[in-house]
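Help wanted!
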Amino acid sequence: MADTKVYRASTTAPVNIAVVKYWGKRDAKLNLPTNSSLSVTLSQSDLRTLTTASCSSTYTGDDSLLLNGEPSDVSGARTQACFRELRARRAALEAADAALPKLSTFPLKIVSENNFPTAAGLASSAAGFAALVQAIGNLYELPDSPSELSLIARQGSGSACRSLFGGYVAWRMGEKEDGSDSKADLVAPASHWPSMRALILVVSASKKGVSSTSGMQQTVATSGLFQQRISTVVPANMALMEDAIKNRNFPQFAEVTMRDSNSFHATCADTYPPIFYMNDVSKAAIRAVEAINAQAGKTVAAYTFDAGPNCVVYYQEEDAATVLGAFAPLLATAEGWKDGSVVNASVKLDEGIAGTIKEGVSRVIMTGVGEGPLKTDEFLVAEDGTPVKR
Amino acid sequence: MADTKVYRASTTAPVNIAVVKYWGKRDAKLNLPTNSSLSVTLSQSDLRTLTTASCSSTYTGDDSLLLNGEPSDVSGARTQACFRELRARRAALEAADAALPKLSTFPLKIVSENNFPTAAGLASSAAGFAALVQAIGNLYELPDSPSELSLIARQGSGSACRSLFGGYVAWRMGEKEDGSDSKADLVAPASHWPSMRALILVVSASKKGVSSTSGMQQTVATSGLFQQRISTVVPANMALMEDAIKNRNFPQFAEVTMRDSNSFHATCADTYPPIFYMNDVSKAAIRAVEAINAQAGKTVAAYTFDAGPNCVVYYQEEDAATVLGAFAPLLATAEGWKDGSVVNASVKLDEGIAGTIKEGVSRVIMTGVGEGPLKTDEFLVAEDGTPVKR
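Answered by r_m:
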């Protein structure tokens, strides 16, 4: 009797925000970076991708992906690389055990959804590729560790490899030409330093900037300062950051986070033509964090910016009153502000800074460090193989 | 009979805008830079300081300076260093020729005026110290060359040394500990490449930023990328820039100008805490210059920014219609726009960029390459030693 079953597996995967930034590829095809990087995985209660991978001999046509309700192209080299690698691993299992169904030969039907709006301007590709790889890994019942799966996710989107773990995650750049040592590695689980919180200030950008994929390669090609970043600055920051995390040393964590963000954006500004991701609102957020630390008399907050104007402010739970208290007068009515989060407005921001932030921040996301991908019984593909209507 | 004469000498001195930037001191006391730099001297018809130096045995009290009608402190180490050095040279002349009046022993009374408003946010210290040193040099009838006088002006304000020459001027960083080889040097006179024009977009800054004196030392102390700039980037830019000037190669001049400005501001952004001189209006000006070059199909304009948000656009006279034509629809009614300068609005700027510039540029200065200090018979001190009322 033919196997007509629809095989399914679901996972969620988190967003991560780097504190030592990935910027630059030494091999664009394999997504091999010019430097190691390190990130904090954010809680999936607030930000996650849910992906169901399914396959069946009854499916016809090519592999497909439905993303946030819209068909998404999977013919790109990056997605194809993930499918190919995952199928090869499944095929090896099937070759070793004839009793296994030949899932590697079936078309894949994948359905994926984010729980946050694309309008938030958050890089969703990391969570997206991590969920894609983990879901198929689950579907294929691969024995691979998260670190091994991260090798595959990396080929989809570089920073996706870090979303295979929760907590504090390093992406080791590796040295090998085939990229087999360029993968994610757990520095510390979320439970090691569970008090880490993140306030994301979503800044309205008037226009989409340069994509990170093309931007980073322009930086590699044209910035006269970039070599110094990858050869000296980042290795030092990686060592300091791992040390800070191991010792739960927030001031050190914060300083390295801020310096590395500055260094990354400096190499963008040194790109020719220059790339500017931060705008005047972003800079007001930097000044706000500086004012909070100055008025608190100690370092209680750190800013970092990815390839866009949004500011991510890291702080510890015990300093929530101080940090959130400074922003509450401006942002308590903004979308996403969690009521009753605070309030102790002991820190007073300069009027110009406050006005710029109030006017320029369209919503906030209040979250914290969280876990890695979680297997779930929530399916976006029904038992008959059709997408679940939601 | 006692010598009761009031000795006077007047000079004007120009502003200069660097195309390879000075940023960082290796010796703060002597104003010795971490790298060489190169500037274009701007026409004194538009921007100049007029300074009269006078001295007399009848003057009582300390040396004094009246700047734009206000008494100005001359007790600072930098001004004192200039006075001391100039007096020492005069004293040497007097020692060699007993017939010379002993001007070196008389108090100095100096009166100085800029022909541009301080509100323009242009660094006036370069023109100011160049005029001060040249005026006293004239008063003392020193035989020193402009390059030798530049050694003294450098101690007043680093970039002032470049305002001792017209045209295209290098400040060679030198190697000696005493700074005796850190001085200005003529790369080419204005007559070599007289068609160089500058459009200065004066951008309203909401607040005074970090001063260049303290900012550059913060960069030296904290930027992880700075070493690469001074050891590699600037030496390469200096060589390319001198070559561009010698060959009147505008595209090369423009590219190095823009890249060096980007590199300088990148090291500011990499300073901890970061220094941002450019704002969203400055960035719109960068995008405008990029659009002008793209639409012209060749490089006809270059942007550069000093330690502030103002954009200086260099272009050649023959491209005035293209370059000014792009800005005319936005700025023809701005203060300082010279009527009938243009118009060929063949370049059309993006609406967002145009709107940001129109709203954020408060005035313009339209000028070009010009001559060095000029001796003048216009005196700001009367024959009786009193300041001239104007």
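OP: Thanks! One thing I noticed: The two ends of chain B are 34 Å apart (CA to CA).
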